[in-house]
Design goal:
Elements (H helix, E strand, L loop, with lengths): L7 H13 L11 H12 L3 H17 L2
Length: 65
């Protein structure tokens, strides 16, 4: 049986994402994801935006950029 591939739109999105984004997959202890998600929602951010802002802030403090 032949494996089905995604639609043309999905392939295009995957190609765009691969060219324009780096992927991070952090692991956090159980329960922290819900805490981070709640904080992100309270601040009006997606979880991804919240994590990126947090990492940017910490990197600026450490690197002084």
């Amino acid at each position: 049986m032949e494996k089905k591939t995604g639609t043309a739109a999905t392939k295009a999105k995957n190609k765009y994402n691969a060219a324009n984004y780096d992927r991070l997959s952090p692991f956090v202890r159980k329960g922290k994801k819900d805490r981070y998600r709640a904080a992100a929602e309270a601040a009006g951010y997606s979880l991804n935006e919240f994590m990126e802002k947090a990492m940017d802030t910490l990197a600026e403090q450490i690197l002084g950029e």
